[in-house]
Amino acid sequence: MNVRDRPGQDETDGPDPTVEFFERIGRGRPVMLSDTVTATLRIELDHGGRITHWFVSIDRGTVRVAAEWRAADAVVRTSKEFFDRLVRGEANLFAALVRNAVLNEGDVTVLAHLRKLLTGMAHMQDPPWVNSTGRGRG
């Protein structure tokens, strides 16, 4: 779906980094998410007292995104403005958790997958010298 087609998106606002992030991760299969990764995550973003829900499903490494509330393995809560900073690489997810700028409920290990998606690591390939176990040579 085009950014401008999203409800609440004002044509004069320009691109929304959060919407673009969810559109990007929802396209295809990120390389570094293993075939064994299966998890769900709901991200709740507060902007001016209005909550937007994003549901991220990872099924054997394939990512699907829906702008809706669903039960999930983990729930992340933060402000829309702060999530924009995370998406732009201006803030660190785990540092934000320690400072309570981001709240987590549920399986904290799911956040490691979100971190990969936020930093773009999920779209990067390991260097050729890393073997299939991820432990390097020999």
Concise account of the structure shown:
This protein has helices at residues 17-25, 80-87, 93-98, 110-119; strands spanning 38-47, 50-59, 62-66, 74-79, 103-106. The chain is of the alpha+beta class and 138 residues long.
Characteristic key phrases:
single chain, 138 residues, alpha+beta, Nonspecific Lipid-transfer Protein, Chain A, 5-stranded mixed sheet, 4 helices, 25% strand, disordered N terminus, disordered C terminus
The major pleated sheet works out as:
5 strands, mixed
- Which of globular, elongated, flat, extended, rod-shaped describes the shape? globular
Strand order of the largest sheet: 3-2-1-4-5
Indicate the percent of residues in helices: 10-25%
Radius of gyration: 16 Å
Mean pLDDT: 81
User: Runs with pLDDT <50, length 5+?
Assistant: 1-12, 122-127, 129-138
Structural class: alpha+beta
Question: What is the helix tally?
Answer: 4
Q: What string gives the helices and strands in order?
A: HEEEEHHEH
Assigned CATH superfamily: SCP2 sterol-binding domain
Number of domains: 1
Give the distance, in angstroms, between the N- and C-terminal Cα atoms.
Answer: 45 Å
Strand content: 25-35%
**Count of DSSP strands:** 5
